[in-house]
Amino acid sequence: MNKQMMGLGLSLGLLAIVGLAGCGTTQAQSKSKDATLGVTLVGNPATADPAISGDVNSSSMIAQTEEGLYTLDKNGKVVAGVAEKVVKPTQNGTVYTFKIKKNAKWQNGDPVTAQDFVTSFDWQVNPKSKSQVANKLKYLKNYAAVQSGKLDPSKLGVKALNANTLQLTLSKPQPWLPDILATAEYPMKTDLFKKYGSHYGTSAAKTMSEGAYKLVGWSGNSDSWTYVKNDHYWNAKNVQIPKVSVQVVKDAGTAVNLFKSGKVQETYLTGQYIKQNAKNPEMTTTLNSSMRFLEFNDKRTVTHNTKVRQAFSYIVNRNQVTNNVLQDGSQAAKSLIPTGDGNDPQTGEDFAKEVGNLVSYNPKKATALWTQAKKELGIKKANLELLTADTDEQQHVAQYLQQQAQKYMPGLTISIKALPLAQQINKGSQGNYDIDLDGWTTDWRDPADFLQMADGTSSVNFTKWDNAHFTNLMSEIDNTAKYTTQQRWNLMKEADTYVTQQAGLVPLYQQAKAHLVSKQVGGLKYTMMSDAQYKYAYWK
């Protein structure tokens, strides 16, 4: 799971490229099998430390250079990674014991050990790391006590039984744990972490890879770097692309031009460019496992008011946002949970469809709620700042929200603060904002991952909305030992309905992702939960 404000940050370009629509690219000449693959990334990664990575740009970089106990095969299915096999838990689903592959190596040839996973997991939950993704491991035994500082991280339910045997002990069953182990949890080189501590992962020189590629030339604020094949990777013989050159390109028009000129072979598409390339065989589009929403700082007087938050929900014509502002295949939100994030254990019905549409566009109701809120607050006017990332997509949506709010909420002035992704994350995590145009991408199919964004006990709840009823619902949802799968499902439906109606978060849209992939390149596949993995790519 990743912050997208952060990570829902595919940039949006709304300028047309003449003659691009429906045409192929100029990438006609064949490539040598040893040629470098050129790709783009929409923003700068904040860290290479897998224990604290909370944005999708960092997660993208880490996923190409590290490998967890499990990994995803070329079709997005969970398979064994560094572990010898996918294991079945014992003791009522609470104990997992893994054997580390003996040929799993770091880029310097050192063996990957069970302790390297212990180091990473301990640091992730250690409150000193200030990890925004600590709760990915909240089902580990003693998680809450370690996170609160009451117990030493060494008491966490992760142990190295010997050099190549790792054991995870959970406080209760977690059926979706394999997804997390395949997409979000990686080891850290123990001796390197002891050397650099909290500076681990701040540059390529202060991290180490054990995945298909090693990270080269990334300084922490670089706009370009490379992934170089890791010859010590246990499956290196099947990695066909020896080098991947990465460029940060925030402007979609620039990205398209780089692709068209043959300088990159994979890049993102947004806005008008998607419409223009509707018939281009080199374009691939996938609905993403992400939701964009508005967060309101519950510690500030105006945005604490429920009617203010509800008014904002009613000013948003979500179909207009997706069809006219974005034009990229994104889908209007109906609740906080995106389509495809889970199926009813009895009927198989999609969660979002089963819950139904909980939001609507009603400017008159928005104005009435705002008028009531002003009376409750004893104000006639208000000035609020809307925080957003500096990508075109987010800024265009922010401008739409600004226009709608000032039109239908008289006396309200909205200013927009656009920042680079990492800075937006930092500002949001510190609670230094009024309204945040934020988002979340999940790593597994379970609605609770989105619901916990509004949980008063969650480290990723940047709103600090602390509603006792909702928090209690989340506590019940987390109690997998007490509730059956169907009971838990019903509790999640109740929680989704409650948080949406109370506007604890205001859902906007489920994002689509679109890419141009050169017809010279094979093996790059995208799923709802994952982007393409370069270790499966090859030159045709």
Automatic annotation (TrEMBL):
Residue span(s) of domain Solute-binding protein family: 77-459
UniProt KW keywords: Signal, Transport
Signal peptide: 1-28
Places the protein is found: Cell envelope
Keyword Signal: yes
Keyword set includes Transport: yes
Family (UniProt): Belongs to the bacterial solute-binding protein 5 family.
Protein name: ABC transporter substrate-binding protein
Originating organism: Levilactobacillus zymae
